[in-house]
Amino acid sequence: MPRIYLSPPHMGPDERGLLIDAFDSNWVAPLGPHVDAFERELAARVGVGHAAALSSGTAALHLGLLMVGVKPGDTVLTSTFTFSATANAIRYVGARPVFVDSDSDTWNISPALLAEELESSAARGKLPAAVLAVDLYGQCADWDPITAACARYDVPLIEDAAEALGATYQGRAAGTFGALAAFSFNGNKIITTAGGGMLVSAREELVRRARFLATQARDPAPHYQHSSVGFNYRLSNLLAAVGRGQLRVLDERIRQRRSNRDFYVSAFASTPGLSFPTEASYGRSNAWLTCMLVDPTEFGATREDIRLHLESKDIETRPLWKPMHLQPVFEDCRSVGGGVSAGLFDVGLCLPSGSSLTPKDRELVVESVLSTPRRARPG
Ligand SMILES: Cc1ncc(COP(=O)(O)O)c(C=O)c1O
Q: Is the pTM of this model over 0.85?
């Protein structure tokens, strides 16, 4: 049996055809007709005015923070329960992240803690320069109270929608909350360009400026002329061609991933000690990764026992994100709460969730979880 991966790329004939078209046209540089078309098509799909195609989601976050004016020494409030790229981007601009814990139902940043922190920082006269909130595992954050709190204190909001392309909140697409939003097309995402990202915004001037900085900040001149520090962050035309093909099948990919999740939820419905978060009633998740919680006393084995047992059967799973406030690299940063995400990290496991999983693969995953050796007193 070939290895079952957590979230592998899933390519189809459209992607191949578009890639060959890009190759044959000799537009193999980080600009070209597929880059322009990918930006237009993604913006149309999300329902946002403007988009800049970039080399990664991390690059999109970095430029997004620069676009709202975050400077060295500033603080940025962000989700602790996320991938490190969110917090790293804050460091790239010389700012200090302050980590805010998750809501226990949605696992996304707690709007109540965020509002409290904004209120107390306003009272101290030290408002953060921005809030960078994440749509976790394909489910939107609870944007209404988050945007209201940011508006109250006039703090710019950026949405890290890297994992949430195609998800919705109150009928509105992920990527439309905040001044700017970032998507990722990394190899493990719901659609991929091998590596890539997109910065989107309703404000054209922000996207135009980000695109300029992403192209080494070349001033208009026949020679190389620069009045700002730029970055080499543009997406290759070859990869944009792949992205266009992937975007065409996004709805199908969401359907497949939601079906994986529904399958696991019903397969383990009567297994003591295994549970799944319920989808927030405010939106529709793209079900990027299906996450399972393991109660070791009830199930008779820990999350790590299950992970190692599946690994022995060549099935890849991953613990949930280790929260940023527990990461050595951010140990000097302040956090607001932290117990919810730390608890989820202790007992949570991401199951194979790729859109190319076969019914047989999914059954094998379920059988393997259930055949994990149980201990009398799991530690
Ligand atoms: C929440 C989150 N933010 C940012 C990123 C960074 O995206 P990229 O890998 O495209 O740089 C990722 C994933 O990789 C992510 O999951």
A: yes
Tens digit of each residue's pLDDT, the chain (379 residues): 899 999 999 999 999 999 999 999 999 988 899 999 999 999 999 999 999 999 999 999 999 999 999 999 999 999 999 999 999 999 999 999 999 999 999 999 999 999 999 999 999 999 999 999 999 999 999 999 999 999 999 999 999 999 999 999 999 999 999 999 999 999 999 999 999 999 999 999 999 999 999 999 999 999 999 999 999 999 999 999 999 999 999 999 999 999 999 999 999 999 999 999 999 999 999 999 999 999 999 999 999 999 999 999 999 999 999 999 999 999 999 999 999 999 999 999 999 999 999 999 999 999 999 999 998 765 5
Ligand 1 within 6 A of 134 CB?
A: yes
CA angle 271, 296, 374 (to 5 degrees): 75
Mutation to probe ligand 1, out of 83, 84, 190 (largest number of atoms < 8 A from CB): 83
Is 193 touching ligand 1 by the criterion CB < 6 Å?
no
- Tell me how far apart the alpha carbons of residues 314 and 97 are, in angstroms, rounded to a whole number: 37
Ligand 1 pocket, 108 CB below 6 A?
no
The answer to whether 264 and 290 are in contact (CB under 8 A) is yes
Give the C-alpha separation, 288 to 285, whole Å.
8
- Asked whether 64 lines ligand 1 (CB < 6 A), one says no
Q: Which two tokens stand for residue 361?
A: 């693969």
The Å distance, Cα 40 to ligand 1 centre, comes to: 22
Tell me the C-alpha to C-alpha distance, in Å, between residue 317 and each of 92, 303, 304, 343, 373: 30, 10, 10, 18, 17
CA of 24 to the centre of ligand 1 (A): 31
Give the nearest ligand 1 atom to 184 CA: 10
